[in-house]
Amino acid sequence: MHAAFGDDRRSDRADDPSGAAPTTTGDPLKSLEVEPESAATIFGDRIELGRRFTRDLALHGELLGLIGPLELPRLWTRHVLNSAVLAPLILPGARVGDIGSGAGLPGLVLAIARPDAHFVLIEPMERRCEWLHAEADRLGLDNVTVLRARAEDAFSVAPLDQVTARAVSALRTLIPLAAPLVRRGGELIVLKGARVQDEVEAARKQIAKYRLSAIEVVELGRGLVPEATRVFRATVDAAS
Ligand SMILES: C[S@@+](CC[C@H](N)C(=O)[O-])C[C@H]1O[C@@H](n2cnc3c(N)ncnc32)[C@H](O)[C@@H]1O
């Protein structure tokens, strides 16, 4: 049991970018960040879907408790593009699990950017699953499955080629949930904040136990987003 995951208010929020904040009123689109020029570069010919997702998230995200209102002026850079820069790491045709998709970050964004891959969005909260289903339908994405489950109960989706996660938990608690879902030779791709190296140190035991190798911290999106996205990347050599 991972009691700390029962209520995401109690999970490790050290790099939680969802930005809990007081409620705003009025038209959310007025506060939405202007689309950065780099968005079209990052999404390529999928930019129209990227725009629709960002607009839908701006319109519904606060009401559904997916994002805080203070996130609207940085929705593109801090959330959507921060997720989309991962797209080149997704293997061609891969089956990818996204643990704790929430608003669809990075799972739905990657499903937009990488239509060749299939994404299983693993999310325990009903309302968030409803949003993920509805939004995938609205966008006409046929490469998305939503699974209402905690990662530790999601064995039916294994083995996956890659697993992503953003703002779910510290590495030392995330690795035991994520690694068992990945096939031998598959990958963990975890978005992290500035303290990623400290988290890697704190997770040494779990890294050894779950036989992670080729560990690296990569920075993505430099020159495209104001703050590069830090990613913990590792190969899962064998199930423990
Ligand atoms: C802080 S939110 C982050 C959501 C999204 N990834 C983002 O970056 O905006 C954490 C999400 O992880 C989900 N979560 C918490 N524990 C989980 C678990 N054990 N397995 C799968 N998802 C979990 C929560 O329901 C919540 O949607």
Automatic annotation (TrEMBL):
<feature type="binding site">
    <location>
        <position position="105"/>
    </location>
    <ligand>
        <name>S-adenosyl-L-methionine</name>
    </ligand>
</feature>
<keyword id="KW-0949">S-adenosyl-L-methionine</keyword>
<dbReference type="InterPro" id="IPR029063">
    <property type="entry name" value="SAM-dependent_MTases_sf"/>
</dbReference>
<keyword id="KW-0808">Transferase</keyword>
<comment type="function">
    <text>Specifically methylates the N7 position of a guanine in 16S rRNA.</text>
</comment>
<feature type="binding site">
    <location>
        <position position="166"/>
    </location>
    <ligand>
        <name>S-adenosyl-L-methionine</name>
    </ligand>
</feature>
<feature type="binding site">
    <location>
        <position position="100"/>
    </location>
    <ligand>
        <name>S-adenosyl-L-methionine</name>
    </ligand>
</feature>
<keyword id="KW-0698">rRNA processing</keyword>
<feature type="region of interest" description="Disordered">
    <location>
        <begin position="1"/>
        <end position="34"/>
    </location>
</feature>
<feature type="compositionally biased region" description="Basic and acidic residues">
    <location>
        <begin position="1"/>
        <end position="16"/>
    </location>
</feature>
<feature type="binding site">
    <location>
        <begin position="151"/>
        <end position="152"/>
    </location>
    <ligand>
        <name>S-adenosyl-L-methionine</name>
    </ligand>
</feature>
<protein>
    <recommendedName>
        <fullName>Ribosomal RNA small subunit methyltransferase G</fullName>
        <ecNumber>2.1.1.-</ecNumber>
    </recommendedName>
</protein>
<keyword id="KW-0963">Cytoplasm</keyword>
<dbReference type="GO" id="GO:0005829">
    <property type="term" value="C:cytosol"/>
</dbReference>
<dbReference type="InterPro" id="IPR003682">
    <property type="entry name" value="rRNA_ssu_MeTfrase_G"/>
</dbReference>
<dbReference type="GO" id="GO:0070043">
    <property type="term" value="F:rRNA (guanine-N7-)-methyltransferase activity"/>
</dbReference>
<comment type="similarity">
    <text>Belongs to the methyltransferase superfamily. RNA methyltransferase RsmG family.</text>
</comment>
<dbReference type="Pfam" id="PF02527">
    <property type="entry name" value="GidB"/>
</dbReference>
<keyword id="KW-0489">Methyltransferase</keyword>
